[in-house]
Known about the structure:
The protein has 15 helices and seven strands. By secondary structure, the protein is of the alpha/beta class. It has a single domain, classed as P-loop containing nucleotide triphosphate hydrolases (Rossmann fold).
Amino acid sequence: MAAGVDSIKMEALSLSEGIREAPVCIIVLGMAGSGKTTFTRSLIQHAQEKFNPYVVNLDPACREVPYAAHVDIRDTVNYREVMKQYQLGPNGGIVTALNMFTTKMAQFAELVRRAGERGHKWCIIDTPGQIEVFTWSASGNIITEGLATMFPTIVVYVMDVVRSACPTTFMSNMLYACSILYKTRLPFLVALNKIDLKDCSYVQDWMTDFEVFQDALEQEQSFVSNLTRTMSLTLDTFYENLTTCGVSAKTGVGFAQLIKHILDCVVEYDKDYKPVYEKMRKERLAEQQAALCPKPPDNVEEAGVAVPLGLKLNDPPPNSGNSIFLMAPGLVPQSNEEEEVEDMEEDAKGSAEDQNFQSFVQSHLTAQQSKRDKLLQEQSQS
Ligand SMILES: Nc1nc2c(ncn2[C@@H]2O[C@H](COP(=O)(O)OP(=O)(O)O)[C@@H](O)[C@H]2O)c(=O)[nH]1
Ligand SMILES: [Mg+2]
């Protein structure tokens, strides 16, 4: 069943309630073609009985999804129409569609909250094909932070083990994963996908043993491999705390283990990340309240003196008789002698420059004329 977010009433959703227990939001990220959508389908199947997942598709450009989504961005925004109306290409269309969806973030969060109340223990979120649309966009940020300040939230990064077998591609993928980890500040799990095609043990070897990775790099003689060598040293600490799990989104292998890791991540969220997001939630709440009832400025006297209102529009202003008008302090003309002297100096400087320029033009013209005269004289002599 797909739900439209427009019809949602907001009275129940409030930041003041604190981070709820459920549903756990699982944001599925990964490069285009890594298998996010297929992974989402498999995860739903494996988690159905125990966690009754609520499913969200945030990819506006996919033709169809292989699962039944409860919320589908395609029901809210027609990405092809967006392209047509705003004269955008496919990437601009996808970003704009996600931005439009994000304007309904509060309603979306309310839907997720209600899903939790109806017994959905998990909420799985499939993201757009191109990873940067979600990870490096304002809307991706708003959705991730919005969810993490209301529900336990974790990130599952899907990585294609077939494509990552090339050490430089592996390194690019890892840099991406690392940047997302530090950007989102959420528990992070790497699903090494497509193990039905290639064994993923090489990833663990590369991550735990620097020399094995160096050996693999030796095969690649390029400038990029030198860069990759340096980067791999830098990523050492990132690898130390990284949880990986081999899966096949196609066959379902590895998902029992993956679910255990997800549950560990939820514990981690409660222990380490929740306090950070609790703080952020309180800040957001304070911002909301400040926006509702703005505080008068502390420096009231500096800001000017209150003028009693209550006159009708056609009443004459109180000072109109003697032609005195109210002015803001910054607008009152200041008679400052120093400034006047400076102004005079500036004027004098300006006119001297003018004179210089005029005499330069004059001498240039004279020089040109005498050149021309000389040339004519020479011609007439010859
Ligand atoms: N063999 C195999 N193919 C997979 C697996 N997961 C995804 N794929 C294929 O990879 C391609 C991209 O998958 P998709 O889920 O659309 O990727 P997304 O762009 O990240 O959502 C599709 O052709 C899938 O059938 C897997 O575990 N094994
Ligand atoms: Mg997809």
